[in-house]
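Holo prediction. Input below; ligand is magnesium ion.
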Amino acid sequence: LSERLSGVFDKLGKQGALSDEDVKTALREVRVALLEADVSLPVARDFVAAVQEKATGQAVTRSVTPGQQVVKIVHDELVHVLAGDGDTAGQLKIDNPPAPILMVGLQGSGKTTTTAKLAKRLKEKSGKRVLMASLDVNRPAAMEQLAVLGVQVGVDTLPIVKGQTPVEIARRAKQQATMGGYDVYMLDTAGRLSIDEALMAEVEAVRDVTSPRETMLVVDGLTGQDAVHTAENFDARIGISGVVLTRMDGDGRGGAALSMRAVTGKPIKFVGLGEKLDALEEFHPERVAGRILGMGDIVSLVEKAQETIEAEQAERMMKRFQKGQFNMNDLKSQIEQMQKLGGMEGVMGMLPGMKKMSKQVEAAGMDDTLLKRQIALIQSMTKKERANPQLLQASRKKRIAKGAGLEVSELNKLLKMHRQMADMMKKMGKMGKKGMMRGALG
Ligand code: GDP
Ligand code: MG
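Structure of the complex:
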């Protein structure tokens, strides 16, 4: 992608806003690059459309080239799609012991290996007692494979009884996990070379007798289009709660990750990075985004662009404040800055004497969820309203609060805060440049 894009980008204009034509040219190349990285066609198409919307008309930042800027937008959108809500990577729901975890996927995707890797992780990182059971009655020696891995990672496996059906084994695992006081029991199912009815019916029956807390789809990260097909099928029929992408140590470009995430909307929780049993990591969207873009130095490039863009934004904002302008967009940037600094708690922790106040702050509902609620309210305003908060009369207020799923009283508090800050900005503006603390804007 690097060479291809830099060629195109050199031709892009250097001034003003990114033009339609600039963006279109660049994104045609981005689309090809995505397809080369094994992202499925419809996903690549949607992705490019989303980026186009974000990029068109965006002001070109002075110190980065339009090319760098488009790369940054593409990168950020990739991370955004890959991360989803972003808070479930590396996590499994394993309350109410014994918690069943169902492992599903095609043959050879790495289910059995991943089962052992996850069991090891649960044992070592979370101190959980884990029982593993192989339900693979098809492949010769599949059960023995899991038993051997169990010994290697020091995790118990369900004793092998030949001649039982997968459902019978699952029942036995549940019983043993309950009686043996295990926290988690993992069910390693049989795969097939491709999706078929017999496989689905079998997995479905196992699901119904165990009600898994997590159903993890294990997918080979080297497969592109197929991965999507697999994920759609498993999700439609079985319902998956998360994805593990294996073989991310290979030279696949990770396009499967984007496709999977976009199509199923299910979080990618872990990635497999080798055959060794500790080669499992929680999913890092930035790394995969860098990989899809195919540039080793993309991350530092993006960081540099980010810093420049932030500095210019701060400068532009400062100028507005000095003129006494402070609208909802400014307030939103301020709140987002606070979130970056680690939210209310982070900011409070940095100020002397504030620690003591944190209880009162909590009582006043001023925790991190407040910042999120405030952002939600601002996002529910139209562009015009954000620029001119004085427009906000009763009916608009109702609509905005409803759009954010909150009460009007909460919106009123936000508006009051905005007025107070606007006043303060005005006063600070009058004090002139000297009185302003640049650092205050981060
Ligand atoms: P299953 O049929 O889905 O149970 O797949 P297995 O767990 O038996 O794995 C099939 C092969 O893939 C084995 O040789 C594993 O060692 C290998 N494998 C599994 N995960 C990874 C991974 O993340 N990276 C690499 N390089 N190999 C893996
Ligand atoms: Mg297996």
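The radius of gyration is 26 Å. That is the main takeaway for now.
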